[in-house]
Specification:
- It is a single chain.
- By secondary structure, the chain is an alpha+beta fold.
- The protein has one domain: Alpha-Beta Plaits, CATH 3.30.70.100.
- Helices cover 38% and strands 31% of the residues.
- The chain contains 3 helices and 4 strands; from the N terminus they run E-H-E-E-H-H-E.
- It has a 4-stranded antiparallel beta sheet, covered by helices on one side.
- The model has no long low-confidence stretch (mean pLDDT 94).
């Protein structure tokens, strides 16, 4: 079965409020077996215009598991805490 990945491009607008999101999203990731491949760290555009301040990459056992994480009650609480703290673009990708 192919792994599922969630990739998020984040521009944090309220760092203090975003800290609460990080706590709640970490709990949700742990509850759903996410493997964190990248979370923060340096970013540098190599091509195109995309230049988020933060990139997050999560690996799940399957595409459906990644979607279940996103729809979960645990992650819903994290998403609510993130309102007005960041601009988020997130995709789910099926692995090869």
């Amino acid at each position: 079965m192919a792994a599922g990945y969630i990739i998020a491009y984040v521009d944090v607008t309220d760092p203090q409020q975003y800290e609460q999101y990080k706590v709640l999203s970490t709990r949700a990731m742990q509850a759903h077996g996410a493997e964190v491949l990248a979370r923060g760290g340096r970013t540098e555009p190599l091509e195109g215009e995309l230049a988020p301040t933060r990139v997050v990459m999560l690996k799940f056992p399957s595409y459906d598991a990644a979607k279940s994480f996103y729809a979960s009650e645990e992650y819903l609480a994290a998403r609510k805490s993130r309102e007005h703290a960041a601009k988020m673009n997130m995709i789910v990708v099926e692995g090869a």
